[in-house]
Amino acid sequence: MKIMTRLKTKLSALLPFIGLLCAQAQRDMKTINDGWFFRKASTENWQPVNVPHTYNLDAYSQRNYYMGKAFYQKSFVLPEVPQGKRCFLKIDAASKAADLMLNGQKIGSHAGGYSAFTFDITPYLQKNNTIEITVDNSRKDITPISADFTFWGGIYRDVWLITTSEQHFNLLNHGSDGIFISTPHVDEKEATIEIRSEITNDATEKATLEVIHQIYDPQGKLQQTLKQRLSVKAGETQTVRKTSAIGQPQLWSPESPRLYEIVTTLRNPKTGMELDRSTHKTGFRWFSFDGEKGFSLNGKPYKLRGVNRHQDQAPVGVALDDEAHRRDIRLIKEMGCNFIRIAHYPQDDALVEACDEMGLLAWEEIPIINIVPDTPGYDDNCETNLTEMIRQHYNHPSIIAWGYMNEILLTAPGPDRPEWPACRERTVKLAQRLEKTLKQEDPYRASVMAFNMTNLYNEIGLDLVDVSGWNLYHGWYVGQLNDFNRWMEDQHARYPKRPTIISEWGAGSDRRLHSKHPKAFDFSIEYQQTYVEHYLPFIEGTEYISGCTYWNFIDFNVAARQESMPRVNNKGLFYNDRTPKDVSYYFKAMWRKDTPVLHIASRDWPIRTGDINEKHPVKIYTNLDEVELIINGKSIGKQRPANCHTVFNVTLPYGTSTLKAQGDKNGQMVEDVMVLRLDAMPDLAKGDELAINVGSDCAFTSDVSGLTWLPDQPYSKGSWGYIEGKARSTTSEIENTTDGPLYQTWRENLRAYQIDAPSGTYEVELLMADVSRSRPQLANLLGRGDDGQAIADSRFNITICGRRVETDFSPADGGHYRQAFRRRYIIQNKENKIDVLFETLKGKCHLAGIKIRKL
Ligand code: L9D
Ligand code: CA
Fold first, then answer.
1. 581 lines ligand 1 (CB under 6 A)
2. Are 369 and 388 in contact (CB under 8 A)?
3. Among 146, 148, 571, which residue has the most ligand 1 atoms within 8 Å of its CB, making it the best to mutate?
4. Which helix (H) or strand (E) holds 664?
């Protein structure tokens, strides 16, 4: 028995490597993601892990996540070292830098966190082998060095072991697979295909070889077989090109992503033995960008409709499996997109393949963001990363543009600063260098760059790219919504020939926050909707704009971000768990012409609090011409949507109601049903809790307690509210609470807060936070949203129902800055009113929330 198990374990350790020994010549590829050991440089203990893996799950809980080295180890046994074979280790991504050792010998290293790299490990192999990989996410000479996302460290994509014969396609060219397919000319009648193959001969003799390309049409029918002979000296790699014409090509487009398959084999013409094989998909399409007429695809005007996509998902960070990447492309397609900006870095092969297969045009870029540092080696690494991206994703028909800089002047010193000339010079120099490399690497695709809201890009010559991407946040970070239209009109007037894409536009939203008076930076679900309902019609209706990519497909992790959901950039159209926000249906209604869209946009606001006679807004997103709303079986009437939405202001009974929206598209009935609940306004007499989000127009529903804190209001007789003072807010993170937004809005310098309520014993709870010493915010916020300074060093007295409860007091007493302060007082209300009086001694008194409960 014991021998058997020992044999079984030996066999299982051997299994992944059996392929190495087989006599057959072809290539053997498999992942070796399992059975690794891992430790951070800061700890001693090794723990078993599988890759994809990231060592920065701490970014979900702390702003200063681990930055530094970490080690990965994996051992494996080879019964015998394979003869006449080559073995390669391919790592699809390790961030940001990796040094590799095999059996104590240095194999090599890689600088760059978002593209693959491959090493020939044959010379180092022995019976018992140990791979050791040191990864480092803190290198300052490797881009990105500053950005609005987490620099996740780890081997977070697949690790492959590839075995080939001694004559094989080159695997050591910047992590590519040595086959490069392009379509220099395409039109309805004819397409030209060019296939460049790199063949390596690792044997000690010269080899005469034959390369065969079999081209299959989208229906799988063999269309052409192209052959070419070559002889490759020992130890050399040779490149051969083959060009051919394809008549009546079946064109590729997002609507019909027809792919041709090219099977490329390497043979020994004498023995007929197949030595290597590599299969690729390609698609025939042609496109152009024009400053006046916008984008065109396959000869027709074509509006690019897309989103930006980051690659993280809680709880695994960026260690996603391929199927998760494919799922994202499916969701993005379903929403009606035909375009994606793969931001801000090259992403998994699985994602780009899905763009080819499912039909999504793509912009891919390398992460040079915010500033070009004056760091030795940085520029070289950027050029290598650009070359890697292009060579590794060269064969994907979905990709139409390569990018290499995003908001590169955002944190650069301004023109008024002494450091500006040097910074300007090195930035423009690097851009010119990369533009040149890009065009050398790939003359068939467009070069793009994303600018933030300054005309400096045009003034200093960074508009050297084919297409200008504008990241515009008017009506969010700066100005008003209409400033967006004005910005684009002004740019087009000044530079009418420049093709443009709105490469970013977006507003944050938090499903706990709802407002009937939505405004910028209140993070309410309603304001994000207002923002997109303003931008999209302008983009759609403006011919010279080639298209757009909304920022962002998902809420994503940024350890340094504060705001309503610390460590989350919540501008997503989908939550980070890929649940759609209601707003995503606006895009679907605007962009899906092929299917009826009807959505009651209240899944993010399923519970309302209010009065039975009060009107409650129920928004419908739809591409139908008319919709009817039925509540509990009774029709509320029909309305004709404009800009793909309409709002029914309805009264609701207390409790749950069934809402049904219905309409028809070309005679096809469509409906959407959901349940909405109306909770009555708290009745103190009945012992309900009256909770108020002081200083804000937003209702806040805690996702921990489920309690809704009502939007604030001025005091009126018989009711409740503030007396005097000014509403203020901050995006500073509030610590030690999960209800941060409550404390991020407050009223300062109020004289009192009064609630008319029957006499009795009450629990009165006051909420506040001293945010005068907030942590530095990301540059992306453009200094927005921090009134915290206003209440610095404030001290005040508080008296409730005539009894002084706090004297010469500050919520920061004891150094508790940015901390959620919440204190409950038991008081006697003898005059049918609870009045909380504030007497400022220094600075400004302030209150962020109040909760009352009759005992
Ligand atoms: C920028 C915006 C985005 C940020 C992007 C960046 C934002 N400021 O996430 O990375 O490109 O949400 O602030 O445009
Ligand atoms: Ca508040």
1. no
2. no
3. 148
4. strand 655-665
